[in-house]
Batch of 3 targets.
Target 1
Amino acid sequence: MIWDDHFAKLKNSLNLSKDSVTIISPYMSQNTLELLITDIKVPVKILTSWQIDDFTSGLAKTSLAEKCLDKGWEIHVFHGGHKRKLHTKAYISDSKNIWIGSANLTDKGLGINKNPNFEMMIMSEFSEDIKKHIDFLFSISSRVDKNLIEEFKKLEKLIPEKDIFELDWEAPFVIDGLTIPSQILESIGGRDIFEKLWSLMPSRPDVQNLEPGYSEENNLHLIGCRWGQFRQALRDMDIERDFIDEKIKILYDWAINEYGNILDVKTGGRGNYTQCLVWKL
């Protein structure tokens, strides 16, 4: 069983193959695949996933399949026509030994990214029962040929281009003592957008410093920020109208779900019913 150094150990194991190599991984990157089996001289058989969401998220590409065919490797896929999704990860040498576990054939999965996933793999003998199951997976998959690649290329052309945000900090992003996960920053459009929105929030108030006769219902602006103010800030940043409310909702959901002990959403009194993100007093 291994918890780290997956790439080197899998590569060493597969390099000993004398008859065949079989790889099953829903997600795989072309670079990682070539690095792993670049020295392999035996026939290679691959099974991966081509669901629509795999393409839209960039986890599947027809170019990888083309490279496989160019090298004479056999590649099969599970796609939208299959009722069940592929989730198996397996690396098989000569139908004798099999590595199974959680690691996809990607830089993060096999530990060669500077921020790799935590994965676990175990090696087992390739039993008859395992063989039957692997054979079954290949039997219900679709073998990729040039015609199938052309069909999925049509799909790739329909996928809209997405803005890519580089979120590569050595430590979590922290502001006002609150930690903002990278997935929140990515969903909201990047660190600059988050910082702009958060800058509209007043500093966390001390009850003693509030105005005399303070009424929370009519003075939410002293402890928070209205939805409309957030919306105007995004308009000023030339954010597309269709995405503005979605980004504000992400901010609100993060605040309430992660810091509901100190943040809340409230509405003001008559004539001021828009939602305000506020500090709890």
Note: The chain has two domains: 6-158, 173-279.
Target 2
Amino acid sequence: MLRRCIPRILWITFPVLALFGSTAKGADSSIAQRIQRGESFLVGLFDNSLQLLPEYKGSATYWLFHDNYLAAHLLANSRSDLSERIRSSLAKFGVTNSGKIEIVFDEAKKPLPFRTYVLTNVALVEGKTIRTELVTTNLLAGWEQYADLLLLASVAQVRSAPADARRNFDKASAMWDAEGFNDPASRHGGRFATYKLALYLIAANRLGISPPHRVEVIERLLAMQTPDGGWITDYKEGKPLGLANVETTCLALLALKTLGEGPYGR
């Protein structure tokens, strides 16, 4: 997962054009339908009692950051009512920032240098645990080894240091091994993380480039969407591992929404 701890649908190979349709109209329709399904998945998880989304269906853990922060953003247009209720809950629990995930929406005040993060309990409500990620003051050593952090750094540097942004993107891109981003986290867990596929597309969009592994990454990302609209967290040898959860689904949706944007587009 994107939270910096030990990283917690059958694979079907389709040509991207077959998935999107052979025309721009077909492509837009296919992506729009996938986005709608993904948003419906998030809406279906909404807990009216806590005004938050659990980590995944049936979970008793509710992450303020990253999950609900991301969900508030991704539902802002289609379900502004739920988005506002989530934001109100974040404020109620006194957690309105994390320091890292906000990079994807250009809302991180001091995103770099990366610092270590702690995962902490915020409250226990009716047997449900409210948790969040918080930034510390300690510098994070060795972050350049991880594809996700390289991609986040790239997004953070687009305006202030474009050459460094491209350099970090290229370092992450070099970790691609034809199935996923092979970094220490992937090797430790023996699996590839779906959210890194999404971050790759998001970072490429911010840089305004057509990335070298774009077609393969899109195919793998689309293949990890479940029938109910969510995105599976991990995969190995073409097979999904884990459950569809909020964080992965939100980042996948954000990536899909960038596909028709920017100079490289479709």
Note: Confidence is low (pLDDT under 50) at residues 4-23, 262-266.
Target 3
Amino acid sequence: MPFKLTYIKLTTFYVLIIMIVSIAFSFSIHRISSSEIDRGLSRQINIFRGMPVNPSYSITFDQLEQSRLTQAEESKERLTINLIYFNLLILVLSTFASYLLAKWTLKPIRESMEAQNRFTADASHELRTPLTAIRSEIEVGLRDTELNLSDARLLLNSNLEEIAKLESLSRALLKLANGEEKKIKFAQVSLEEVLIEAYEKVAKLAEAKEIEFDNKLEDIKIIGDKTSLIELFIILLDNAIKYSSPKSKIECQISNVDGKAQVKIIDHGIGIKASELPHIFDRFYRADLSRSKEKADGYGLGLSIAKRIVEMHKATISVTSTPGQGSEFIVKF
């Protein structure tokens, strides 16, 4: 409803501007045309007055002048009516065109506000979950008259786990809100070193699932921020490990394709449905239906952060996936 009212206001504003221009233009045309009619009439009268008088003429110069004045007034009236019809047509067409223009102008703003509202609602929901858990555990503990030191320690440890989740979510939200972009410093970076460091961060997760890595890395250098690039590939590798079956394989490739550095992360896990691929980079989106067998932790923010890092480096990220066969993420610099 608020945007419908905004559409109407903006449409009215556009129509008002168009009609002011149209009426001013019509007024100018009317004045110029009327002046030309009067000037032409005066020339004709002067020509007739300069002609010798013929007694056989039944019409006098005064009658002829009056007749032409009447014709001039009729011409001006027809011109006025035509200009009125013209402005009414302009009013109808401009109203329709202005409404379409108003919707087109406000579309990015509306989409941005809707995205912001969804983001706020999703963030509130995700924040509420650990907070509710902490509050419930504390309330249960306070009502327990037989709470001993051991139980209290368990309660505090559980609360600390929920607080850690809140901290993780808060950091992710800050990154998505551009809170850390000012710290980025671009320099020459080795993609091979970046990928190796990213792997070291997730090696324990891979070992826990006995996942084997097949690496085909070239020492290609690009201009970028090493810290954020390491984070990018930590997210992609972590994502691949989460949704891979135990004792499976993940392939990491760095290559030069048509003068562009290309990094591929290929897993042979459960894959993603085609209907969900367009949404995997959306904030808080988790492909729960296609990945129901793998209940992975997280808030659905990892790939959103990955996409932001890619965009900051003027790169592109794409994904192809087949359910039951795995996914392939490609980053091109």
Note: Helices lie at 2-50, 61-143, 149-176, 191-208, 226-242, 302-312.
